[in-house]
Hints:
The chain is an alpha/beta fold. It is built from eleven helices and eleven strands. The strands form three sheets. Strands 9-5-3-2-1-10-11 form a seven-stranded mixed β-sheet, sandwiched between helices. Strands 4-6 form a two-stranded parallel ribbon. Helix 2 runs antiparallel to helix 11 (267-280) and helix 3 (69-77) runs parallel beside helix 4 (97-111).
Amino acid sequence: xxxxxxxxxxxxxxxxxxxxxxxxxxxxxxxxxxxxxxxxxxxxxxxxxxxxxxxxxxxxxxxxxxxxxxxxxxxxxxxxxxxxxxxxxxxxxxxxxxxxxxxxxxxxxxxxxxxxxxxxxxxxxxxxxxxxxxxxxxxxxxxxxxxxxxxxxxxxxxxxxxxxxxxxxxxxxxxxxxxxxxxxxxxxxxxxxxxxxxxxxxxxxxxxxxxxxxxxxxxxxxxxxxxxxxxxxxxxxxxxxxxxxxxxxxxxxxxxxxxxxxxxxxxxxxxxxxxxxxxxxxxxxxxxxxxxxxxxxxx
Length: 299
């Protein structure tokens, strides 16, 4: 009984409740993120077709592999169960060797004893090639290229200009003049040229070269590859005349890398290339993109 002496209204007498509309993304949010939805749908299609988990790391030509990439890789790996086959679509001109090692070991730890493949749609140069050496298979086509794993180091000349030097080339020149002087202790040219080398720089470059070679060989040994011969070929300034010289699929296969070639007209390659083109559109002005079927970061 209510205070006014009337029976309270029953629930059936109350005004009908309006059914709540399910929450959806707003039209503007959907429009602003349409590119990501398109890419991630394509990644899901590739995952289903290849029975793997695809990660994408694509950087602009000005952006290098560095320690900041760790966060992006951890995000991409977050929803992948341990011991899952993992693929990495990789586009980079290179960067920091220590960061490269950390990134590839994160991926290998997640893959465990399952296959790990690297897809190279365009460039995986220098430290990018080092990352590819950890793969059980490197998928390449006519547009794909790897590069020398010869580290580059910035040094200033007598005028204070900063120039990039090939660590391997520098040490080869030093050793060439040392050999000439050993053969002829009075060789004037060898004595003159050796005056231009600093013992501290030589020692530093030797450490960098050995660091890269050891890392490369450790990656190759995981699958029982002839690590010494492959690392020697990839660091050979005699075979590759410049640091940027392309190493295509045929050369990569010839030196012993586990290359799977796909024709540009192959349906599988067409999916990879379509995805790569969509990703490259997001990497203008030195940006990088880390993307999987769940994760997406552009920095």
